[in-house]
Specification:
Layout (H helix, E strand, L loop, with lengths): L1 H8 L21 E5 L6 E3 L4 H10 L11 E21 L2 E22 L8 H37 L4 E3 L5 H34 L2 H9 L3
Parallel strand pairs: 1-4, 2-4
Antiparallel strand pairs: 3-4, 4-5
Length: 219
């Protein structure tokens, strides 16, 4: 997994037409801050099995013909904020250079749904609860694994993105927005890769053999 992640990193160094050659000599070494959170785990016991199954189907999280008495969901949140400095090059020419890049990559609104048709503290209830807790732990563990790799890749990518040249001081704000857009374009494939790996790990838990084993626990 690690090698594939770094191979993906090398694909995103295409230059932008908005980057001017006369800014290319400037050193790009912004402070990079990676923030993350696992979110606060929520429990929802207000829905029926049918309602939970419908939620699962919307996210392609349940096979046709299976009914979900439990479900785990989470959002992977990704956001970029940058601060810039405008180098005055003379004749009203400016190079807008990033000084700080703040990136958030974390879990948002992790939720475990448990059918209200399950009897609390029953064997089936406890098995379903344990199963869904494992799903949430997989989300957390996958994010923990990839965060250091993500930071290393982010540092490599950002240092190769050149400052933006502008000829009007009124365009500096637009240049900062353009840099943010470029960072989003370069880094989003890495975030999508992490999401895909998270789903792959989840599918290792959701397989017929494990379902059969869990069902047998309450016979």
């Amino acid at each position: 997994m690690k090698n594939l992640f770094f191979i993906l990193t090398t694909f995103f160094f295409i230059s932008s037409s908005s980057l001017a050659a006369d800014c290319s000599f400037l050193n790009v070494d912004p402070k990079i801050t990676i923030k993350s959170s696992y979110g606060k785990l929520n429990y929802d016991t207000s829905k029926t099995t049918k309602e939970i199954t419908n939620i699962a189907k919307k996210f392609n999280l349940v096979e046709t013909g299976l009914f979900a008495s439990g479900l785990s969901t989470v959002n992977v949140n990704f956001d970029i904020t940058i601060n810039t400095f405008s180098n005055i090059m003379g004749n009203s020419e400016f190079c807008v250079t990033p000084t700080e890049v703040i990136i958030f990559l974390g879990l948002e609104n992790p939720t475990i749904y448990l059918s209200k048709e399950l009897s609390q503290n029953s064997c089936q209830y406890n098995v379903v609860l344990r199963h869904e807790k494992v799903h949430q732990q997989i989300n957390k563990s996958t994010l923990e694994y990839y965060l250091p790799l993500f930071k290393k890749s982010v540092t490599s990518i950002i240092k190769k993105i050149r400052p933006i040249h502008v000829s009007d001081i009124n365009n500096i704000k637009n240049a900062t927005a353009e840099l943010t857009k470029i960072y989003n374009k370069k880094l989003t494939p890495l975030v999508n890769y992490i999401k895909k790996e998270m789903l792959t790990e989840q599918q290792k838990l959701d397989n017929p053999n494990n379902y059969h084993y869990e069902n047998s626990l309450c016979l």
